[in-house]
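Would you mind giving me a polypeptide sequence along with per-residue structure tokens?
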Amino acid sequence: IRMGDDLWMSRFILHRVAEDFGVIVTLDPKPMPGDWNGAGAHTNYSTRQMRAEGGLSEIEAAIEKLSKQHHEHIRAYDPHQGKDNMRRLTGQHETARYDEFSAGVANRGASIRIPRHVGVEGKGYLEDRRPASNCDPYRVTEMLVRTTLLN
């Protein structure tokens, strides 16, 4: 939860500093059309069990649950019910497609990435690469917890 507080305060400070310099800031994940990846709010997520010895099996179980709720997460991960992510998650430029779930070790083009060192160590965390840069961090946390722990 602190992560959400920190992100909102960072955004506030960014806007205030930009205002002092006459600069306008946008959190839109793809403010200009074009052949580029846009901006995401990749979210590292773990539980105590994922970080313990043998935690990779817990990570894989969480990924299986996330795969079944992919479209719900896409809709929750930007303030426009997934429309922002439709522009950003194209399957190109190290992004997954918004309409397809994928996961893999060291795969920067996946919806969910298991970092290489996590795969080697067999424990750690997963990286959800789907949240847009303008996401509500509390909603992202809610969706991850609800899907992996409460469902």
In short: The chain has a mean pLDDT of 96.
